Amino acid sequence: MTDPGGVVAAATGVTALTTEEPVGRPTGWWGMVLFVATEATLFACLLGSYFYLRFQFGPQWPPGGVDKPKLLLPLLMTAVLVPSSLPVVWAEHGIRRGRRGRLRAGLAATLVLGLTFLALLAVEYAEDLKHFTMTTDVYGSLFYLITGFHGLHVLVGLTMIGWLLTASLRGGSFGSHRHERVRNAAIYWHFVDAVWVAILFTIYLSPRL
Amino acid sequence: MSTTTSTAPGVGRDDLARLAEHWAEPRSLRAWFTTVDHKKIGRRYLVTAAFFFVLAGLSALVMRTQLARPESGVVSPQEYNQIFTMHGTAMIFLFATPMLFGFGNFLVPLMIGSRDMAFPRLNAFGYWVFLFAGLFMWASLPFGAAPNNGWFAYAPLNQVQHNPGLHMDVYALGLLFLGISTTSGAINFIVTALKLRAPGMSLNRVPLFVWAIVATAFMVVFALPALNADNTMLFLDRRFGTHFFDPSGGGNVLLWQHLFWIFGHPDVYIIVLSALGIVSAVLPAFTRRGVVAYSLIVLSIVAIAIISFGVWVHHMFATGLPQLSYSFFSAASTVITIPSGIQIFAWLATMLLGRLVLRVPLLFVIGFIVTFVLGGLTGAMFAVTAFDQQVTDSYFVVAHFHYVLIGGAVFPMLAGIYYWLPKITGRMYHEGLGRWAFWLTFAGMHVTFFPMHLTGLFGMPRRVYTYRSEPGWDGWNLVSTVGSYLLALGLLLVLVGVVHALRRGRPAPADPWEGDSLEWSTASPPEPYNFPVIPRVHSLHPAWDARTAESTTTGATAERVLSDGRRTLFTSELDARTERAVDMPESSFKPLVLAGALLVFFTAMLLAAYPVAVVAALVVAATIAAWLWPPRRPDEELGVAS
Ligand code: HEM
Ligand SMILES: [Cu+2]
User: Fold this and answer.
1) Which one, out of A60, B275, B494, B550, has a CA that is 20 to 30 A from the CA of A22?
2) d(Cα B105, Cα B114) in Å, to the nearest integer?
3) Mutation for B interface: A7, A27, A158, A163, most B CBs within 10 A
4) What is the pLDDT of residues B164-196, one digit of tens each?
5) DSSP-derived 3-state class of residue B457
6) What local confidence, expressed as pLDDT, does residue A201 receive?
């Protein structure tokens, strides 16, 4: 532990105000956690609305001749998105040891996986739109609202990742020693993943139960 | 009791000079648009919320003028619908919550001994969004396009087939837009109170006002998403033909209500709880002792914040019946009885055990207790189902919730305004003017709203633009209207008092009241850097504590934080041990640009100019990217709070 400022005010119980490895969680971490908490509540409201409307609607779900959702594509999407949390963790670990190469490689891998997910979502929509749209009935409204909203979140997450990648390629340092911004983007990305799992159960699996 | 000012002896001249330099704002007009100083932002919140209060209050006067006599034609039914909806919506969303955020913004950093909020630029952004969203909503009124479906905007009347025109689009988009401000502000409060407390301010030394603000901020974080989900679906239903609230497409009108009240019930406490925090902050100075039962009050604050999430359905007891509406404070008041009873008794005990100093702020606190308890009593009456069935959607409800809202929120805010005016403006108010203002608002409030209990019991329904001449209705309505003008006069006197203080008031000392919390140990008004030395806190009443004064004057705490940068301290979440110094951001145009781009986005959505909306969204993304763009500097530099 170095003390570049040379400030050790032992008399006041303050050890070092500037240290290599700062103590405590930074404000950015708390900010991101609270942001994710409020976003998670939003998704909880949307998924809650799904179940509410479904059970108010009656036994036949999806209504009106729409087939139960097919599973192959969504499972493929899961297989792409959920593991994409790993390279982020790897990148974060890397940069904490000062290894910029690992940061870049990890972020790039996540970016590719995330984009693949969005491409698969587009394929899924192209197929679904042949059968029902947002305006067909309330099932369609819910389906496209929830999956679309999640897709939007993936896009936001990818923007963060892409932004970090660009910034790191141009030699920016992300604020503090711990690379706060990488960690914050990682939290957001894990959240996007977790929400997808909830959506998989709600939208794709629950109608088959 | 020593009052420490910014010219503390232990702090050298050049330290102060360097502090002033680091925290200086750019000169001229530029500062106006770029400031990130929480005190300026707090003041702006207060002034802007007061401005929206005036607009909403004028709407109320129009309503009361229309209702003074039976079958009068001051406004048309369509105009009345828009006016009462804008009145309620603005009072709740554009006045009450932002006003409390204004107090919070100005006071929280000062009370916890910090130099700014955790995210100063986000703070500035939140203010601009609030301002723009408020103007966005009010601007629809002159066009006859204002929301017209009551502040809770029930389905199916909010659907486009029943309510064409832009009215409810303004509602949905306006509240979504505003929600960005409220959410970012709430997150900022929580993180500020968690990380930026002065060394030594462990959780059991946090001022009650800060507790209240943090509790309400948590409620915002978990309640507001329900409203956002609701409004998103509403907008999609209206614009893009989805069927969330439309039974013909398999939707359900009750979904709107559920989501609305999952938000709405906590929201009532978001307002009242932080107003109660003001009461707890004001009392010590005018009773000369700390508030009794600190820990019990903290517990009751936390209890209210949690309980309020579990009871939204009590707004919907009547929904099994064909009629969809139900009184909106009803059983809320019964649930809040226990924890808020604890607070009331604690304040009464404080007053009994202390020496009362009957200045204007204390008058408003007493006015609050009287009025709020009356409102609470009628609230308890709603719990009797038979009674509830009788008065639901009558003027009895209007009387009840105004007792709670004016008694429970407006009076505490007025107490707060008089109490902190010296700190905020550096000027003392005129006591005589203040007393007149108190007695007029107090009398006006009761003359206006007490008769509504009676008209309600006589069967007068709420949300009607006029009524037939009925025995028992005419006279009392006239009394109500006279009362509302009295009330308006009282509020005008508050305004006159503020202007008078600014123009003529004598300069305020640092601590005119011998207050107990840290804001009183700074200059009036505080310097841009708040504290020359970050104080070390030793008790629940740091400003009464000689040891705090000592550590502030000798500069014993964290000398380096003092002056060699725009810096403040991070401390640990629970026990506030010093962690490290952080650089705070400088003033910036980006918050304003970002809020402006969002305004363009929401306006374009309202007017269905979708390509423009897409462009605005891209500008939003680009601004955020630029905002967060990391500075090029070596890794071992200090952390930067955004
Ligand atoms: C300044 C004096 C005020 C007067 C004279 C006044 C008067 C009124 C009247 C006559 C109504 C009934 C409208 C109707 O049912 O047709 C009303 C509704 C309402 N007021 Fe006030 N009010 C005042 C202050 C406030 C304040 C301070 C708040 C909140 C902080 C507030 C919140 C509301 C709400 C939420 C409604 C319900 C609107 C709706 O049903 O959509 N009012 N007010
Ligand atoms: Cu309630």
Assistant:
1) B550
2) 12
3) A27
4) 999 999 999 999 999 999 999 999 999 999 999
5) helix
6) 96
d(CA A81, CA A76): 9
> What is the model's pLDDT at position B628?
83
Higher-pLDDT residue of A94, B323: A94
Nearest to A163 by CA among A181, A180, A187: A181
* Statement: residue A209 has pLDDT above 60: yes
Residue type at position B63: M
Residue B460 C-alpha from the chain's centroid:
31
Which of A141, A143, A160 should we substitute to test contact with B (largest number of B Cβ atoms within 10 Å)?
A141
* Complete DSSP assignment for A63-112: -TTPPPPPSHHHHHHHHHHGGGHHHHHHHHHHHHTT-HHHHHHHHHHHHH
Q: Quick one: pLDDT at residue A12? A: 36
pLDDT at residue B1, rounded to an integer: 34
Q: Could you give the CA distance from residue B211 to residue B314 in angstroms, rounded to a whole number?
A: 27
Buried b / exposed e along B309-334 (16+ C-beta atoms within 10 A): bebbebbbbbbeeeebbbbbbbbbbb
Residue A206 distance to chain B (closest CA, Å): 18
For tokens 């308006």, the residue is B488
Contacts of A42 in chain B (CB under 8 A): 225, 228-229
Q: Are strands B578-583 and B567-571 parallel, antiparallel or unpaired?
A: antiparallel
Say whether the peptide bond before residue A62 is cis (omega within 30 degrees of 0).
Answer: yes
Residue B407's SS3 state is helix
**Contact (Cβ atoms closer than 8 angstroms) between residue B149 and residue B158:** yes
- Tell me the three state secondary structure of residue B54: helix
SS3 for B232-252 is HHHHHHHHHCCCCCCHHHCCC
Residue B180: CB partners within 8 Å, gap ≥ 6?
Answer: B126, B129, B133, B598
pLDDT at A1 over 90: no
Beta-carbon contacts of residue A90 (< 8 Å; ≥ 6 apart):
A102, A106
The rounded distance, in Å, linking the Cα atoms of B511 and B522 is 8
Could you tell me which residues are beta bridge partners of residue B427? Answer: B507
pLDDT at residue A14 is higher than 80: no
In contact, A164 and A92? CB cutoff 8 Å? no
Least confident range from A50-64, A116-130, A171-185, B127-141: namely A171-185
Peptide bond into B26 cis (omega under 30): no
Evaluate whether B567 touches B558 at the Cβ level (below 8 Å): no
| CA gap A154, B476 in Å, rounded | 59
The verdict on the CB of residue B487 being under 6 Å from ligand 1 is: yes
Q: What is the pTM of this model?
A: 0.93
Q: How far apart are CA B476 and CA B453, in angstroms?
A: 10
Low-confidence ranges of chain B (pLDDT < 70): 1-10, 310, 313-336, 383, 385, 555-562, 631-642
Handedness of CA B243, B244, B246, B248 (dihedral sign): positive
Contact B248, B240 (CB under 8 A): no
Residue in chain A nearest B252 by alpha carbon: A53
Q: Does A34 touch chain B (CB under 8 A)?
A: yes
Cβ-contact A27, B188 below 8 angstroms: no
- Yes or no: say if A108 and A148 are a contact pair by the CB < 8 Å rule: no
